[in-house]
Design brief:
Number of helices: 21
Distance between the termini: 64 Å
Number of strands: 0
Largest sheet: none
Order of helices and strands: HHHHHHHHHHHHHHHHHHHHH
Shape: globular
Radius of gyration: 22 Å
Helix content: over 70%
């Protein structure tokens, strides 16, 4: 009888029931909420499902993120900047830079949308974060999860990486909800109806030269951007060269999906109740929302300026796509424009600022690294 009692007692001690408190239950509820949004509502399921499941696991079994735990080793790949860089390679292999090449002015819209990052940096300092933490937090404004993780790791902000990454990926998923009200507030019905001229055809040679030239120019100016910009352009060169179809296919499909699984679950697993439920996390989520909103607004306002300077040839809505959530932000520009005029087709025009925003956010990260002397 004593043996049975002892055995049952040991089994009970090994369950999570005695170790899960109300804070863990709260985080489990949040994880379930994310799963609902991903599965039922379709909000970026490729991102939210692994993140939410990692969140679920760590709040039931914290040891999974401790040294020796499975997700601890996944997370090391985040810290070492391996997974964010591979994500950029996959994004490059899936991205068509043609709209940006056809309309180089799109670079200006992508640059304008980065204003949210720099404004959030100063706001974070005012809210009590140190300069490196403020820089890591501010990248959320670019709605770019991999770059947020990359910079947080490079600046040694491991303890903030979970909240930063979750906030960045959450706002990426919520682009269709957050952006339209800002876009409609800052534009008139007449501006939203503006139809833009068809983009010129882009030659194969231009598409091949683009990733090579961008890599040389950007990495010479900011060598610290090489892991992100270099992998982005390498993936794109795979796609556009036409001679390594197998590499392009692998980078944009199998490798990309494997990396998303590893990165998503490990990021979600950084959100244990102890690490996540504090005032710093609330500040980070708030700063990220402000940064993203300011970036969206800055892109639209610069689009309005270009509209006036070109005599009404630029639809300001495409400026909102300057944040680097590819291709969600461009789709939102198309959606809002088509609501004003169902015959309006802005998607390809919006892809120019959208892919420019990816480069712009990587450059912003490289700028912060250069400021702090991080290589």
């Amino acid at each position: 009888m004593e043996y049975i009692t002892s055995t049952l007692g040991n089994l009970l001690q090994q369950t999570a029931f005695l170790n899960v408190d109300e804070r863990n239950l709260f985080m489990i509820a949040i994880a379930c909420g994310f799963l609902y949004l991903a599965i039922k509502k379709g909000f970026e399921p490729l991102l939210l499902v692994p993140i939410a499941f990692g969140m679920l696991l760590v709040n039931i079994y914290p040891n999974i993120m401790e040294e020796g735990g499975l997700l601890h080793y996944f997370f090391l790949l985040d810290e070492w900047s391996i997974l964010p860089s591979l994500i950029f390679m996959g994004v490059g292999a899936m991205t068509d830079f043609g709209p940006l090449i056809a309309n180089p002015k799109s670079f200006l819209l992508g640059a304008a949308a980065q204003f949210g990052i720099y404004s959030a940096y100063f706001m974070a300092i005012l809210m009590g974060f140190n300069d490196k933490a403020a820089a890591a937090i501010s990248i959320i404004g670019g709605a770019d999860g991999p770059t947020s993780i990359f910079l947080a790791g490079k600046l040694g902000q491991k303890e903030l990486m979970g909240p930063i990454a979750v906030a960045a990926y959450s706002y990426m998923a919520l682009v269709p909800i957050i952006q339209p009200p800002i876009m409609k507030l800052l534009t008139t019905e007449k501006e939203r109806r503006i139809k833009m001229e068809q983009l010129r055809p882009v030659s194969k040679l231009e598409k091949i030269l683009f990733p090579i030239i961008v890599t040389i120019v950007v990495c010479l100016i900011l060598p610290s951007t090489a892991p992100l910009v270099g992998m982005l352009m390498l993936g794109n060169l795979f796609k556009e060269s036409g001679v390594v179809g197998q590499l392009a296919e692998t980078a944009s499909n199998a490798m990309m999906y494997i990396v998303v699984i590893l990165l998503g679950t490990s990021v979600g697993a950084t959100t244990s109740a102890e690490a996540f439920l504090n005032w710093d996390t609330i500040k980070i989520v708030l700063l990220g929302l402000i940064a993203f909103a300011v970036g969206t607004a800055a892109g639209v306002l610069f689009g309005k300026l270009m509209c006036k300077m070109t005599g009404g040839k630029v639809n300001p809505l495409i400026g909102s796509a300057g944040v680097s959530a590819v291709p969600m932000a461009a789709r939102v520009s198309q959606k809002v424009g088509s609501e004003a005029d169902p015959t309006n087709f802005l998607l390809m025009h919006a892809m120019g600022p959208n892919v420019a925003g990816v480069i712009g956010t990587a450059v912003a990260a490289g700028t912060f690294m250069a400021i702090f002397g991080v290589k």
